[in-house]
Design goal:
The complex is a heterodimer. Chain A is an alpha+beta fold. Chain A contains six helices and ten strands; from the N terminus they run αββββααβαβαββββα. Chain B has helices at residues 2-8, 15-33, 40-57, 60-67, 69-90, 93-99, 102-110, 112-125, 128-142, 145-153, 155-177, 185-190, 196-208, 213-217, 224-227, 231-241, 250-273, 281-285, 293-334, 338-341. By secondary structure, chain B is an all-alpha fold. Classes of the chains: A alpha+beta, B mainly alpha.
């Protein structure tokens, strides 16, 4: 009897497990993470050293990305991709999308350097950084982290950081997680849809 | 000092884990103070098991587990293998039953429907084949790249994952290591803290005998069912005598232990030998310190492969030892000899 009940129930159980893993919306190219993370909120400083908060970037689509200007691979690639995506957008909504590049290496990325680096990728890229406390509060809020390597003889050290881009809508709600497997055209498409949805 | 404080500060504080860990230790200590003595090694195994579970979930270790794949594999090795194995080895039922506040026991004894449901679900999950399937199935399930991604990104899912590993570990290792019926009730009565006889005796005498120390040592063994006259005793019987868990023979247990090794080795080896990064969530969220993603994955694969599979070997050796003692006891019973009769199985 027990055996019979088991053979009847276990396929149902397995099916349930499988189904729960397969729910994915087909609407977006990026991963839909609506409601999984809190609203955009931060206290940082901009490349001019002035304190800024999320209020300074309200009522627009924000793409939040963490990195450092000495980054050899991930940061320049991702920033170039995002900048290309923004260039792909119709002119009417182009200036309503901002890329917030948060440097998690404040020791090396001070004012001028950060401004120059961000500016190289386009007008829509905003360079931000902060104290360790501010950065930790923000990374923790979005369940990401960063860490430093030992410095070599030239004082160069590597920094581990999140490769994800978090997209927030004009209300500051988290909507998408953009991974590095998307093309600029796909990102632009998602941005347009996001603009229409809000 | 500061690094110590930093290490022991929970990365993500959880009331549920705090209350569960410290609560169960408190009940255990109460049980010990009421005279149920599991012996030094059993007691230590239990405390160590619970503390290990606490350390990997409520210290800075949890931070590393969230942002480093191989540390995460280590966390699950503790939650799913090492700590539950230690707890099951300690067979803490009798001590916990004695330490549980009487009012809680009364309440549970009054909830007949709860008992019925609980037992039905428990027995369903503890069917040998399903228990083994669940044990390796959960490892495979949470290591499915898409599911793993969501679990590491979403806090609630992350806790569901860790709790499911810990609870399933307790279920499985208890099924493997629970004392068998070969251990004759009369003989088990002498092994303090092991059998239900002790806890019932303790419980019973708490109300009748004022002297605690004499309680466990008394060799009064009256039939269990006659003793179980009130709610407390019924509860103690149900929890400590453990008629509920399927009694598997040593042979079946060892077979299952060998069977679960194979898929674990396959999963671990697949991670180790994979030339591409399977879990991009650690790149997406950032790693705790710079390390090559493939190295991280290979270390994680090794941990899933070797120590996890070794736990089966360790458990099988423990069972083998018990089996040899049971045989020795049996032959001793035919030719009575007091010196070996009281030998304890691990």
């Amino acid at each position: 009897m027990c055996l019979l009940r088991f053979f009847m129930l276990s396929p149902a159980l397995l099916l349930l497990l499988l189904l729960s893993g397969c729910q994915q919306s087909e609407q977006w190219h990026a991963k839909d993470i609506s409601g999984l993370m809190p609203k955009l909120r931060f206290e940082l400083s901009n490349a001019q050293g002035e304190s800024v908060t999320e209020a300074d970037y309200a009522a627009q689509i924000n793409l939040l990305f963490f990195g450092f200007t000495n980054c050899p691979d991930i940061c320049p690639t991702t920033l170039a991709q995002l900048a290309a995506a923004v260039r792909n957008l119709p002119e009417s909504i182009r200036d309503q999308v901002h890329i917030l590049f948060v440097s998690v290496d404040p020791q090396r990325d001070e004012g001028g350097r950060l401004a120059e680096y961000a500016g190289a990728f386009g007008e829509q890229v905003v360079g931000l950084t902060g104290t360790q406390d501010q950065l930790q509060a923000l990374t923790r809020r979005y369940r990401v982290t960063y860490g430093y390597d030992e410095a070599d003889a030239n004082g160069y050290y590597n920094v581990s950081h999140s490769s994800a881009v978090f997209a927030f809508d004009a209300d500051g709600q988290v909507r998408l997680l953009i991974r590095d497997d998307l093309t600029p055209a796909q990102i632009a498409e998602d941005m347009q849809r996001l603009q229409q949805n809000t | 000092m500061q690094t110590l404080i930093q290490f022991f500060t929970p990365w993500e504080f959880s009331w549920l884990v705090q209350v569960s860990c410290w609560g169960v230790l408190l009940i255990f200590v109460r049980g010990l103070r009421r005279g149920v003595q599991p012996g030094f090694w059993r007691g230590s195994a239990f405390v160590l098991g619970v503390l290990l579970m606490y350390v990997v979930t409520q210290t800075h270790f949890d931070y590393w587990s969230q942002y480093m794949f191989f540390v995460h594999r280590g966390q699950h090795l503790v939650l799913h293998h090492l700590a539950p194995l230690l707890i099951a080895l300690a067979a803490p039922g009798a001590v916990l039953a004695a330490g549980m506040p009487v009012s809680v026991k009364r309440w549970f004894a009054g909830q007949n429907w709860l008992g019925r449901w609980w037992i039905a679900v428990y027995r369903f999950l503890q069917q040998p084949f399903l228990a083994s399937l669940l044990f390796v199935g959960l490892i495979a399930f949470w290591l499915t790249p898409d599911i793993h991604f969501d679990a590491m990104l979403n806090q609630r899912l992350y806790w569901v994952m860790n709790w499911s590993m810990a609870l399933d570990g307790l279920l499985f290792w208890w099924l493997m290591l629970a004392p068998t019926s070969h251990q004759h009730p009369a003989a088990a009565g002498d092994r303090q803290g092991l059998s239900a006889f002790d806890s019932v005796r303790v419980l019973n005498s708490e109300e009748t005998l004022p002297a605690r120390s004499s309680v466990v040592k008394s060799n009064r063994s009256s039939p269990l069912d006659r003793l179980a006259t009130n709610a407390d005793e019924k509860w103690a019987l149900a929890s400590a005598r453990d008629r509920i868990t399927p009694q598997l023979s040593y042979g079946v247990r060892m077979l299952l232990l060998a069977a679960i090794m194979v898929p674990q080795i396959i999963i671990g080896a697949r991670l180790f030998f994979s030339r591409q990064v399977l879990f991009d969530v650690y790149a997406v969220c950032g790693r705790a310190w710079p390390i090559s993603p493939l190295t991280d994955q290979q270390l994680g694969g090794l941990i899933t492969w070797i120590p996890a599979a070794m736990m089966s070997v360790i458990a099988a050796l423990i069972l083998l030892r018990r089996l040899l003692h049971a045989q020795a006891d049996q032959s001793v019973a035919e030719q009575p000899d007091q010196s070996t009769a009281a030998r304890e199985p691990l």
